[in-house]
Amino acid sequence: MRAFVFLVRLVAAQFFLLSGAQVAAAKDLLVVQVAPLSGPQGVTGRAIGAGARLYFDHVNATGGINGAKLRFVSRDDGQNPETTVRLVRESLEREAPVAFIGSVGTNNVEALVRDGALARSGTPLVGAVSGASSVTGKPSIFIVKAGYRAEISRLFQQLGQVGQKRVGLVFQKDALGDDVLAGAEAEAGKWGIELVARAGYERNTTQVEGAVESMLKANPASIFLGATTLAAVEFVRQYRERGGIATIYGLSIIDSKVLLDKLGPEVARGFAFSQVVPPESKSVLPLVREYAKLKGQGKHADLGARSMEGFIAAKVLVAALRKGAASGAEAGKAVAAIRKLDLGGYSLDFSASDRTGSTYVDFAMLGRGGQVVQ
């Protein structure tokens, strides 16, 4: 009788252990986005989040990761660095997410680096929306595109080669603008370019009137916008309304689709911009075809020109999690170990010290009728 009771208890214990293991294996993997969902940069935060959600939904619909589902949550920091730090800290302490994704803004990412909580936990921030040299290569920060300095170098090389050597610079007055200024001044001399005017505008605003006035007065052949999306929209609008004729080049962080929608094809025509992830028009790439297929399968709010960046970040994170990472620290190590990851014609490698992952930089322009011309 005693042997029978012991056997029953042993079977029951094994059953509950097995059940517990299955529950643990099936536990949701939480991924958190802390980014602006409102305010002037809300359009960027929402677009990045929409791209990430598009891929996460696909992964969940096809079985998840080792039986676990991805749970994706976006929280609004209003692009306030202190709020970014607070929300990330609260999430680390209360939820222990497996990763963060798509935080927006150089100042915001710099604040996370200074705070140190992210690095101490080992939890990765994948697809941080900044290419500034002040954040690339920092612990737990992984950027899935080329840095701003690479963009500026390629642009100034192109301008020098075609003889457009009188350049005006418009920048946001913050860490983003500091990096753009430093990069522009470093590259100008290499290509015989003269920076004939430098004009800043206040961070997280669209108050660009002073910058417009400066550029009209200096009359450069080209203007480079180291600006965010809605500030760029307002600058182009006011500059063109006042008769400005310079070719305007925008940093990759400017959402060209939003600019086109808000300005219309006639005003937006001739706006040139750098691309650091493949555009939807590059359908020859398997990555782009996959994105287009998933996008076409249903309605996904807030998908825009910047959403591919969020989609890529999500693919990188999923590739790391499929290696068995089940905690933030494990995920951070798995992302850092990525070498020559081909996402379908777009490759990433985090072996370099700056961890930008990619050196891809291309250019395009809005042509007649709003068509994108490569």
Give the neighbour order of strands across the main sheet: 7-6-8-9-10-13-14
CATH topology of the largest domain: Rossmann fold
Oligomer: single chain
Count of discrete structural domains? 2
What's the topology here?
Layout: H1 2-25, E1 29-35, H2 42-61, E2 70-76, H3 81-94, E3 99-101, H4 106-115, H5 117-121, E4 125-126, E5 141-142, H6 148-162, E6 166-173, H7 175-188, E7 194-202, H8 209-218, E8 222-226, H9 229-241, E9 247-250, H10 256-268, E10 272-275, H11 286-296, H12 307-321, H13 328-336, E11 341-342, E12 347-348, E13 362-366, E14 372-373
Parallel strand pairs: 1-2, 1-3, 3-4, 4-5, 6-7, 6-8, 8-9, 9-10
Antiparallel strand pairs: 10-13, 11-12, 13-14
Helix pairs in contact: 2-12, 3-4, 6-7, 9-10, 12-13
Organism: Azonexus hydrophilus
Signal peptide: 1-26
Keywords: Signal
Describe this structure in words.
With 374 residues, this protein is an alpha/beta fold. It has two domains: 25-147 and 282-348, Response regulator (Rossmann fold, 3-Layer(aba) Sandwich), CATH 3.40.50; 148-275, 3-Layer(aba) Sandwich (Rossmann fold), CATH 3.40.50. Helix content is 46%, strand content 17%. The chain has helices at residues 2-25, 42-61, 81-94, 106-115, 117-121, 148-162, 175-188, 209-218, 229-241, 256-268, 286-296, 307-321, 328-336, and strands spanning 29-35, 70-76, 99-101, 125-126, 141-142, 166-173, 194-202, 222-226, 247-250, 272-275, 341-342, 347-348, 362-366, 372-373. The chain has a seven-stranded mixed beta sheet with strand order 7-6-8-9-10-13-14, sandwiched between helices. α2 (42-61) crosses α12 (307-321) and α9 runs parallel beside α10. The chain is globular and about 60 Å long. Residues 1-25 have low confidence and may be disordered.
